[in-house]
Design a protein that fits this description.
The complex is a heterotrimer.
Chain A lengths: L2 H8 L3 E8 L2 H10 L5 H4 L33 E10 L8 E16 L2 E13 L5 E12 L4
Antiparallel strand pairs in A: 1-3, 2-5, 3-4, 4-5
Chain B lengths: L1 E6 L11 H10 L6 E7 L9 H7 L2 E10 L2 E6 L3 H6 L9 H10 L3 E4 L9 H8 L7 E6 L6 H12 L2 E5 L12 E4 L6 H10 L2 E4 L5
Parallel strand pairs in B: 1-2, 2-3, 6-7
Antiparallel strand pairs in B: 1-8, 3-4, 4-5, 8-9
Chain C lengths: L26 H11 L4 H4 L1 H6 L9 H15 L4 E9 L10 E10 L4 E9 L7 E8 L1
Antiparallel strand pairs in C: 1-4, 2-3, 3-4
């Protein structure tokens, strides 16, 4: 299938959902390893303790791509992530994440022809507050339609 | 006159710079640039009009394209309707010989960019697939190239007698002007740029060093 | 370590450099990150495993690079409300290397008090395996 055909078939619908509980340990470890020093990110006793703005980028659903998406995962790599931050994630939150494919396109780069797949996740807490939108640009090398 | 001949804005899928911010950057940092060319990936950006920014900042802002061929990426200056009808700018496997020939036929100039880069640079393919007719100019200074890549481009240019251009290949605001091209004559618009490129009186430079 | 003073929007200048940092991407620290993020794949925490899979060595997870750049912002402006971060992973950043992280202000919107920042992680060769942008409100 060409990139255009893949885009027509696979974009714009939720193909996966996940629920996850957030722990202080994970929030602290993530923040401190990245070099954060502010207490609100590193000290669970801080009254405003929360995850760093890009914490939710670490969460993936049960699958990277929709069922029967024709990709060879061993040729894939992570080309980038963007996060739109809406509200903080806190310890004890139960996160609900949804996955959809937002875009698919083809280009050539240092590793040859590439298929770019933009996997979009939206995250909500138990109060249904929209916490973040994360776009993950997954790339398959040597794409041959 | 010094122009950055290779840059990307948010119109490119991997571009993150707004054109107004490029202008502000050049002005506030006092970069020795008279303007820049937006060479968006796999398209010609018809919709954008930068004349107001040109007037406000006193810079020349031109539009061109970076297209993709089986020999790597190529900058195309002087894109017009004839050329857009000649081949599909969105394809990643346009034959380079066709891009060069059609650009010539339609009054544009095609320049292989970052030719020393693996896979997306012409030189590696030159070695494996053979030489290409119609190359006159190559980009020997690309601001995004890694160690050795510009040197490969320079070696090919020297060996084949090609003229040299420079461009930042910037995708973020602060990278504009890392490399550029110095023209002996004034360039006022895209037709003037095409004429100047055809005359061959220019060279690749690093504006903050040269 | 004392927290830097809050940054006022009025004090930010176009072209202002954020203080450059030398982040810790040692194997030990990357393992801490990988554990916290549940990303214990060999390519991140084991040089031999990474090489066996065609990499020059273990690589820093992309989102850790992104987190480092977010920490850079907080080090400059602890009161910054990060609205968005967008990072492009152009090449692997190697574990146990000595990168530097830097940023520069590229836009200021007085109405919304939003500052845009270019972000770069540079390796020892001066190459930029990770670039990005962020929007923050002050």
């Amino acid at each position: 299938m060409t990139a255009e055909e893949l885009k027509r078939k696979f974009t714009g619908w939720v193909f996966d959902e996940i629920d996850l509980d957030i722990t202080s340990e994970s929030l602290v470890g993530f923040a401190t390893a990245c070099g954060e020093t502010l207490p609100k990110f590193t000290d669970p006793t801080d009254p405003d303790f929360q995850g760093v703005p890009n914490y939710l980028t670490r969460i993936h659903g049960t699958r990277a791509l929709p069922e029967d998406f024709p990709v060879e995962m061993h040729r894939c790599f992570d080309a980038g992530k963007s996060v739109e931050f809406h509200a903080p994630v806190r310890p004890g939150d139960r996160i609900h994440g949804t996955s959809e494919i937002a875009d698919i396109y083809e280009k050539s780069g240092r590793t040859g022809s590439m298929l770019f797949i933009v996997h979009r996740m939206n995250f909500f807490d138990q109060r249904k507050t929209h916490l973040a939108t994360v776009d993950w640009r997954l790339v398959q090398r040597e794409f041959d339609a | 006159m010094i122009l950055d001949l290779h840059s990307h804005s948010i119109a490119s899928d991997d571009g993150r710079a707004k054109v107004e911010n490029y202008c502000q950057w050049i002005e506030r940092k006092g970069l020795p640039l008279d303007g820049f060319v937006l060479t968006e990936h796999r398209q010609f950006d018809d919709a954008s009009d930068y004349r107001a920014l040109e007037d406000r900042f006193g810079l020349l802002i031109l539009k061109a394209s970076e297209v993709e061929t089986e020999y790597g990426h190529v900058l195309v200056f002087g894109v017009n309707d004839d050329l857009r009808a000649a081949f599909d700018f969105a394809r990643i496997d346009n034959p380079i010989a066709m891009v060069l020939a059609e650009s010539e036929r339609c009054g544009a100039v095609a320049v292989p960019c970052h030719p020393g880069r693996p896979k997306v640079g012409m030189c590696a393919h030159w070695e494996t697939r053979g030489p290409v007719e119609g190359v006159r100019i190559v980009e020997t200074l690309n601001g995004g190239s890694r160690e050795g890549e510009n040197e490969i481009a320079e070696r090919y240019a020297e060996e084949h007698g090609w003229s040299r251009i420079g461009g930042s290949d910037s995708h973020i605001v602060s990278h504009i002007g890392r490399c550029a091209t110095r023209f002996e004559e004034d360039v006022r618009d895209i037709d003037g740029l095409v004429r100047a490129l055809r005359r061959g009186r220019f060279d690749a430079v690093r504006p903050e060093i040269d | 370590m004392s927290t830097p003073a809050p940054k006022r929007f009025e004090d930010v200048e176009f072209g202002e450099d954020l203080p450059t940092i030398s982040p810790d991407v040692s194997l030990a620290n990357v393992k801490i990150f990988a554990g916290a993020a549940q990303m214990m794949a060999g390519r991140f925490i084991d040089h031999e495993d990474a090489r066996a899979n065609g990499l020059p060595g273990a690589i820093v997870p992309g989102i850790m690079s992104q987190g480092i750049l977010v920490a850079l912002i907080h080090g400059w402006a602890p009161n910054a409300e990060v609205l968005s971060v967008d990072t492009i992973f152009r090449a692997p950043l190697l574990v146990d290397s000595q990168p530097t992280a830097s940023g520069v202000v590229t836009d200021l919107d007085e109405e919304t008090r939003v500052v845009e920042i270019d972000l770069v992680l540079k390796n020892e060769k001066g190459e930029t395996p990770v670039v990005g942008t962020a929007r923050v409100r002050l």
